[in-house]
Specification:
The structure holds 2 protein chains of 2 kinds.
Chain A: E1 14-15, E2 18-19, H1 24-45, H2 53-73, H3 81-98, H4 110-132, H5 150-197, H6 199-235
Antiparallel strand pairs in A: 1-2
Helix pairs in contact in A: 1-2, 1-3, 2-3, 2-6, 3-6, 4-5, 4-6, 5-6
Chain B: H1 5-61, H2 66-93
Helix pairs in contact in B: 1-2
Classes of the chains: A mainly alpha, B mainly alpha.
C-alpha cells in the first residue's frame, strides 16, 4: 500500500555497499525526534509553580514513566530512567505522528521495531551479565525442578528468553500496521459505496480513528513497560 | 449551623480514601490492558523462535526435519510458559 512504501529523498548514499540513503522513514523519525525536543523544551522552559498546559503535559509524561519504572522494576532501575523515557516518547510520537493524514508511520515497519527490540534485548543481557556475572545464567535454571527434567526446562527457558525481542517487536509492528490497514480498507469502502451507502463505513472510520489513537498510546506504553519488566529480571535475580 | 469537629475529620478521611481508590483503579486498568496485549503475541513469538532455532540446527547437523519438529513443540511449551508467567504477574498486581 502506498502509505507503507519507503522511498528515497534526495541522492543515493552508499557506504561500503550498504544503502544509507535518506528515506521518508528517516525523515519521519527525525520529525518525531524534533517534535519531542520542541515539546519538552517548551514544557520545561518556564518552570512555573502553577503550570500551563504544555508544562502540565510534559510533567505528566515524566511522572507517568517514573511511576511505571518504580512500580515494575523497583528503585534499582532509577539510573535507566532516561533510556526508558526516551524510548517511550519516541515510540509514542512515531505512533501519533503516523496518525496524521499523508504522514508515514515509522513503527509500522518491522525492521524499525525489531532493531529497537534487539537493542533492548542486547542491552538487558549485557546489564544482567555486568551486574551478576555468570550467575545471570541462573535465570535459565529455575529452582525446584527434578534433575531429569532440567535439560528440557533449560531449553524451554532459553527459547522463552530468545523470544522476547520477537514478541516485543511483532506486537508493536502488527498493531500499527493492522490498524492503518483497517482504516485504509474502510476508507476504500466509503469511495466504492458512494454518497448513498458510504455513510456507514465513514462513521466506522471515525470510530476506528479514535481506537487507533488509543492503540498508538497503549502500544508505546506496553513497549516501555515490557522493557521495564525485562530490566527488572536482569537487575533483581529471584527465580 | 456549625459542623461538629468529628464529622469534619471523618469527611476528610472518606475523601482521601476515594481519591486513593480512583488513582489505583486507573493505573491498574492500564497495566491490565498491556498484559492482555502481551499474552497473544507471547505465545506465537515463542513458537516462531523455537521453530527457527530448530531450522538453523537442522541445517547445521543435516537432520532435516527432525530438530525443527522437536523445537516446534519446545517452542510451544515455552510459549505456554510465557503466557502462564504473564498471567501470574497480572494476578500479583491485583
Amino acid at each position: 500500500m502506498q502509505q507503507f512504501s519507503v522511498h528515497k529523498i534526495g541522492p543515493e548514499i552508499k557506504i561500503a555497499g550498504v544503502d544509507l540513503s535518506f528515506t521518508n522513514a528517516s525523515l519521519f523519525m527525525i520529525i518525531s525526534t524534533f517534535a519531542i525536543l520542541i515539546f519538552l523544551f517548551l514544557g520545561t522552559k518556564e518552570r512555573k509553580i502553577v503550570p500551563d498546559k504544555v508544562q502540565l503535559i510534559a510533567e505528566m509524561f515524566y511522572s507517568f514513566v517514573a511511576k511505571m519504572i518504580s512500580d515494575t522494576a523497583g528503585s534499582k532501575a532509577k539510573p535507566y530512567f532516561p533510556f526508558i523515557f526516551s524510548l517511550f516518547m519516541f515510540v509514542l510520537f512515531c505512533n501519533m505522528i503516523g496518525m496524521l493524514p499523508y504522514s508515514f508511520t515509522v513503527t509500522s515497519h518491522i525492521i524499525v521495531t525489531l532493531i529497537l527490540a534487539l537493542f533492548i534485548f542486547v542491552a538487558v543481557t549485557i546489564i544482567g551479565f555486568a551486574k551478576h556475572g555468570l550467575k545471570y545464567l541462573s535465570i535459565f535454571v529455575p529452582s525446584g525442578v527434578p534433575a531429569v527434567l532440567l535439560p528440557l526446562i533449560t531449553i524451554i527457558e532459553i527459547i522463552s528468553y530468545l523470544s522476547r525481542p520477537v514478541s516485543l517487536s511483532v506486537r508493536l509492528f502488527a498493531n500499527m500496521m493492522a490498524g492503518h490497514t483497517m482504516l485504509k480498507v474502510f476508507g476504500g469502502f466509503v469511495i466504492s459505496l458512494g454518497i448513498l451507502g458510504g455513510w456507514l463505513p465513514l462513521s466506522f472510520s471515525v470510530a476506528l480513528t479514535g481506537l487507533e489513537i488509543l492503540v498508538a498510546f497503549l502500544q508505546a506504553y506496553v513497549f516501555a513497560i515490557l522493557t521495564c519488566i525485562y530490566l527488572n529480571d536482569a537487575l533483581n535475580l529471584h527465580h | 449551623m456549625t459542623i461538629p469537629e468529628d464529622f469534619k475529620t471523618r469527611l476528610k478521611i472518606a475523601k482521601s480514601k476515594i481519591r486513593k481508590q480512583v488513582q489505583s483503579d486507573s493505573g491498574k486498568r492500564g497495566s491490565f490492558m498491556g498484559s492482555a496485549f502481551k499474552l497473544g503475541t507471547e505465545l506465537v513469538a515463542a513458537v516462531a523462535v523455537g521453530t527457527i532455532i530448530g531450522f538453523i540446527l537442522d541445517s547445521w547437523f543435516d537432520t532435516k526435519p527432525w530438530l525443527m519438529i522437536i523445537f516446534f513443540f519446545l517452542g510451544a511449551a515455552s510459549g505456554m510458559l510465557n503466557v502462564i508467567r504473564t498471567a501470574n504477574r497480572m494476578q500479583k498486581e491485583e
